[in-house]
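Structure ticket #2291
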Amino acid sequence: MSKAASTRSSPSPGGALPPAGAGRLVESLAPLLHEWLPRQRWFAGKGRPITGFSAVAATELLPPGAPGAPGADPGLLHLLVRVEQRSTPDLDAPPVPVAPTDDCYQLLLGVRSALPPGLAAARVGVVGTGPLAGRTVYEALHDPHLTDLLLEHLRSPGALGPLRFDRAVEIPAGLVPRLLGAEQSNSSLVYGEEYILKILRRVFPGANPDLELPLALARQGCRRVPSPVAWFEAVGADMGGGAGREPLTLGVLQPFLQDSEDGWQLALRALADGRGFTDEARALGRATAEVHLALAAALPTVSLGPRQTAQLAGAMSGRLDATAQAVPALLPYVAGLRTAFDALARSGSGRDLDTRAQRVHGDLHLGQTLRTPDGEWSLIDFEGEPARPLTERRRPQPAVRDVAGMLRSFDYAARSHLPWNPDWAERSRSAYCDGYAEATGTDPREDAALLRAYETDKAVYEVLYEARNRPDWLPVPMAAIHRLAGHRP
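Resolution: structure written out below.
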């Protein structure tokens, strides 16, 4: 049992700061956030100047107290902060007039008079003015005392200011927390090797698919996705800009599959050992299909007619144009890539295949899968592509979108390992589609125009992502761009 858990049976009192107090707090933190936020992997606004901050909500999960007073250290602040940035065209949508860019981020900040050496890496900075003047603020997820407090709130459902904590089952006390080192678009904490808490960083009004879809799959009895154990949301927070006061999903606690390995590492190991991956890929195809079947049974589906198919192709073409402007290396391939979207648009008027749209994973790749020691696959992280608007991520889409994402992932694995093994990728891709067809009775390769368009759209997305976040990886999707545009190897 952690020290914090042994000395506290319930969460410490706290509460929401009034709007004026929240505003003063965020204003005092602004100079530190200007420097700290852009360095975080999960910050989506890299490369665009920050023009201001405003408070959406501020809650004291553990009041900092007066400096030097008994029990003053540490404090825990939960902030929802709107980050204003110079607007740029939305590269994830067709070109349209753009509004100023405002994103809301969830921050959990610890407050101490002095930071212990063990928390030095979590330091945000010393506050210069305002209610916390002279105090050090830091990333609270590095502090076991504070992350233990967060779990206590999940163990004791209820509301604290705008925050609402819910749970589906009882959660044991005394689970020692640790922060996972691999920062992605969100942050994750493991508690006692039994549960994993995903903290959503960039938050949007409305139900997040990472909570909504696993709950729906749990009701459907699907065992391929870990069922949510507890979660927390912000209720009644005014997002501004006409967004209203819909609940904001902030975090989801699920079982931690500690003996499982993620598909990306398994694939890289197979490549390093010179082994094929077809058995694993076929089983993963079946698992993906089972999840799709369960989602189609749990949530509404729609049929895409010629007009909707043409709109789908037009959106893909618009993203291609916008991305080529942002990443000039893509320009020589635009004409060849556009043929995939044109072919999809033409096929919409005389399709002999029924294109059903349903809820899907939305960002499926090998890193979003786990395999147990007995060979069973699970799918995780149903948030969808974080760069896309939440309304789009919650929209029914053809299931082949997920298939295309996984096919690109096999190509990524093969390309990231030297020497490049294109046969390994092709065999894995084929086996995955075979497994999918075995479970659904429909081979995704039968609708070649739709599959090619989605794979091309995904490769264009990857080019933009790598150019913004990992320039050294840009040659990996560019190799696929070369192939998909019809160029000879």
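Closing remark: The longest strand covers residues 50-62.
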